[in-house]
Amino acid sequence: MSGSSIPVPLPYGRQSISEEDIAAVVAVLRSDFITQGPAIARFEERVAAFCGARHAVAVSSATAALHIGALALDLKPGDRLWTSPNTFVASANCALYCGAGVDFVDIDPRTYNLDVGVLAAKLAAAATRGTLPKVLVPVHFSGQPCEMGPIGELCAAHGVRVLEDASHAVGAEYRGQRIGGRAGPDLTVFSFHPVKIITTGEGGMLLTDDGALYERLLRLRSHGITRDVQEPIQLEGPWSYAQVDLGFNYRMTDLQAALGASQMTRLPDFLERRRALAARYDRLLAPLPLVLPWQHPDTLSSWHLYVVRPDATRTDVGRAALYAGLRERGIHAQVHYIPVHTQPWYRALGFKPGDFPEAERYYAGALSLPMYPALSDADQDLVVAALQALLVA
Question: Which residue, 22, 148, 177, 191, has fewest beta-carbon neighbours within 10 Å?
Answer without folding.
Answer: 22
